[in-house]
Every structure is written in structure tokens, then in C-alpha cells.
Amino acid sequence: MLSNAINADKERIRIKAGRGLWRRLLISITWVTVVFPVLAQAENSPVTLTDDRGKTIELTQPATRPAAISTFGADVARALGIQPVAITTFGLEGTPAYLGPEMNKIPSLGPRHQPNLERLSRIAPDLVFAIRRYTEKDGPQIEAIAPMVALDLITLQDSLHAVALAGDAFGRSQQAQQINEQFMTRLNSLAAQSPGGRTVAILTSGGETPFVYYDHFLTAALLERLHFDNVGGPPPNPDSGIPLGYRISLETLLTLNPDVIFLLPSNRQRGFTLNPVWPYLQAVKNDQVFEVGQHWKESAGPIARSLVLDDMTRLLFPDITPVKTSLR
Questions:
Q1: Which residue from 10, 43, 119, 215 puts its CA 20 to 30 A from 17's CA?
Q2: What is the pLDDT of residues 207-228, one digit of tens each?
Q3: 197: burial class by Cβ within 10 Å (0-12, 13-18, 19+)?
């Protein structure tokens, strides 16, 4: 009987992802080809970059063949009109569908925490964009193949900085600056229309105990900017940004009782949603649990973060007309 009741509750609180989510994401990506006419191209002059390790990277000319040991590298390259030559896998999807069908033709390097360096060497990129925390071990081997820009990609400021740095790397600094300015204008406009006053949790994990993200994690930070109160709270180590969050029991989550819950993708059934406590959460009872795509977990790229705002507008502010920008 308990099992039947739980299953019935589960059906009643079906997560509102909607079958058309990825279709909407693919439609949104059409801006990639029309964002801006390519601005004045930088001459083939040397480029000096400083990444999040504090390391200086010298390029003899702007990069044209970037590899991405992170979805960010492919995302920002596409946004700036550059085709990446290799990319790591994107969560459960393999390739990031939100970047368009062209991604299926780009060689895969496997998972970002264990990229195929032999394949990377054969592809011979002229620059590698990587997530710093995933490539510390393999950094020297990667840099023997090509210069590497290692990025934190955790916070909103990390995202803005990384997009600007990529613009410098590709000789398209002005275009990158406009993309950042346009995003912040849109975010601030949405924040001005947000009534606020609601609490939120971003959860992941396929286990019995969910993982909740701290305030500094990019998607949580965007919700905070929109006047939501993230129940995950502030990070204990704001300077390093690690860890990104922590395990939280359903009983503790019930005491926090968020108004809205976002669920990130999982490769197995979320055990915590079968916990007898789950149906008593306010968000569950009010049908305010939303399943979102992998772009919420890897949201630092300009295309991904724009799609995250699309999702937030659609799910949280259905009465607000989306701001029309050239990034949409």
C-alpha cells in the first residue's frame, strides 16, 4: 500500500520538464548564426592571456582551432563564430544538443575528467579550453599538445571573465564584451520584474540523499539575482569555490521547505524522490518541482546561460514577456 501511495504521489508531482524542452533549446540556439555580424577581425598579432591559475599563455596569433575539455569551450567558440575541433562529452547526452546538430560531427574526447589525450594530439588544436579542477592532473600532458586556458567556471563572475578571455583568445574581444553586456542587461531587466520572496533549491544525484548547491554556483547565483533565496546557503570557502554544495537529508530539506525545486539530470532514478518525506515538501505539494537540462549544470557558456534564463522566465515568470535581444 505504501509503495502504491508513493507511486501515486510521484505521478501527481510529475516534474514539468515537458517533451518540448530540447526542441525549445534548439530553436533558441538559432541566434548563434545571427548574434552579430563578425566584428572587425583582429590582425594576426600575438595574444597574451592569463587564466584562472594565474598562468600566462602566449599565442602567436588568435586561436582558430580550439578544443574544449568542457562544454564551455565549445559554447563560447560557437557564440563567437568559431567552430571547435574537439569536445568532451556533455553529461548523459554525449554531445550538447543545445549547440546544434553540428556538434555531432565534432570528434569527442570522452569525459572531461579523463579526456582522450591521444586523440587530442592527433587533432592538433591551437588552443584548449579546460575546467581547472578537472585538468590539474593532466595539465602538463595537455600543454605538451597545445596551450591550455584553465578556468574555474563556477560563479557568474567566472562566466563573464571566461567569455571575455575567450574573446581575447579568438581576437574577438569587442564581440565578447557585447555578449556579456547583453546578458547582464537581460538579467537585470528580469530581476527588476521579479517579485521575489520565494525560496529555491537546486538538487542533483540519483541516490537516496540529494546534493544541493551553494549560492555561488552559477545557476543558484542567477536565482539569487532574481530575488530568490537559495536554501543551499553561502559556500564555506568562497575564495576557492570548492565544494560546490553538499549532501542534504530529506528531513533537513523539509525544515528548509523550499517553494521551488529544480532537479538536474541524473543517470538513474532519483532515490530521494521515493522517500516518504518527499511528498510533504511544499514545492512537491504545489507542483513546483521542475526537471531541467544539463545546461543548468554546465551553464557558464554564453549560450547555456541564456537558455537558463529562458527556462527561468518560462517556469517562474510565465506572465513576464521575455526581453528581446540579439542573443535570442
A1: 215
A2: 999 999 999 999 999 999 999 9
A3: exposed
Contacts of 155 (CB under 8 A, 6+ apart): 216, 217, 218, 221, 241
CA 31 to chain CA centroid, nearest Å: 18
Taking CA atoms, 86 is separated from 83, 97, 146, 172, 300, in Å, by 9, 15, 13, 20, 18
Residues 124-163 pLDDT 10s: 999 999 999 988 888 999 999 999 999 999 999 999 999 9
C-beta separation of 47 from 176 below 8 A: no
CA dist 153 and 54 (Å) reads: 14
Asked if omega into 302 is within 30° of 0 (cis), the reply is: no
For residue 223, what is its C-alpha cell? Answer: 536565482
Judged by DSSP in three states, 120 sits in: helix
Kindly state the cell numbers that stand for 298: 554546465
Q: Where are the alpha helices (DSSP H) in 194-301?
A: 218-225, 250-256, 282-285
- Rg over alpha carbons for the chain, rounded to the nearest Å, is 20
CA distance 312 to 177: 24
Q: Is 73 helix (H, G, I), strand (E, B) or coil?
A: helix
Q: Which is nearest to 139 in space by CA: 171, 110, 113, 166?
A: 113
Domain architecture of the chain: domains with CATH: 2-26+195-316 (3.40.50.1980), 40-184 (3.40.50.1980)
Residue 230 bridge partners (DSSP)? 200
With cell 521551488, the residue in question is: 260
Q: Which three cell numbers stand for residue 172?
A: 574577438
Burial class (CB in 10 A: 0-12, 13-18, 19+), 147: buried
pTM across the whole model: 0.86
Residue 191 cell numbers, joined: 530581476
CA–CA separation, 296 vs 123, rounded Å? 29
